[in-house]
Amino acid sequence: VLTMGVQETIDDMDAEPGNVVVAGSLRRDEGGLERFLASLAEVFVRGVDVNWASLFKGSAAQQVKLPTYAFQRERYWLEASMGAGDATSIGQSSADHPLLGAAVGLADDQGWLFTGRLSLQTHPWLADHAVMDTVLLPGTAFVELATRAAGQVGCGRIEELILEAPLLIPDKGGVQVQVSVESPDESGRWPISIYSRLEQASDDGLWEEETWTRHATGVLTQGTTAESFDAQVWPPKGADTIDIDGLYDGLAEKGFDYGPAFQGLKLAWRRGDEVFAEVCLDQAQEGDAGSFGLHPALLDAALHTMALSAEEDQGARLPFSWNGVSLYATGASYLRVRLAPAGQ
């Protein structure tokens, strides 16, 4: 009804349509002063001069100057938790592990399947493990996944675990992970495989089916591996101190960018072909140590002793196979380490 009258008024003004501002001062259920002031504000921000002084007369209100620079628009809200939901509601059980969300025993005794999701938002410490500017899941995390699966099926030893392909962690989004443990063979050996696929959302907001990549295969067995050395006397007798200053700077020059979470090597000694070391978790990760069998960052730091024993022309190395791995205690945040050539 009012539209025709508004248009006639604009026509009588002989004004360009783009230079005209129209604002309603009354709306259904909004007929008070608050609505009227909101309408004044609408026309004011569009260039109409409003006598605000008469509005605030006698209120003791004062003008203040706003910053002349653009707002930085930084967010300080906490991000929503990406924690796992109730796995029992989808017919599974909680894996009770930081890298895995759920576990389910397969029908007809066909083994077990563990599932999880990894991302830099839910596991920010992974960003401190980069090789050639690419964030990779450390090999020690595969060992941790296999150790968790071994405990589920009553095995105390990773007889063998071979890494076949690196698992890249994207800057945004996540990676779905599956750990598959098949039923044991006649000798009691449980085959294990670890897979991942990138999460990819389609235009309609649904997840697209990406191809699964197999990253590791191996075998789990019962029993444990015998302990190889006694760490009660420390540092070991006859061992000479190794200067590790500049170790991580040197590794960075070779493309191994270890952030604070993975710079755990603190002290080291050498005795012949043997290297001994003390490693510890970064303070920011200590609170999570009890949730792991052995935190991947801590075990990875133990392997940095390989850089101390390597020849200068060999450079740094990444582990790609594991044999005879057993875990005797869980939740450690500090380790004493011995590295020696195979067979010693």
TrEMBL record:
Domain PKS/mFAS DH: 97-344
MF terms (GO), sorted A to Z: fatty acid synthase activity
InterPro entries, per database record: Ac_transferase_dom_sf, PKS_dehydratase_sf, PKS_DH, PKS_DH_C, PKS_DH_N, PKS_mFAS_DH, PKS_NRPS_Biosynth_Enz
Gene Ontology biological process terms, A to Z: fatty acid biosynthetic process
Keywords: Transferase
Protein name: PKS/mFAS DH domain-containing protein
Source species taxonomy: unclassified sequences, metagenomes, ecological metagenomes
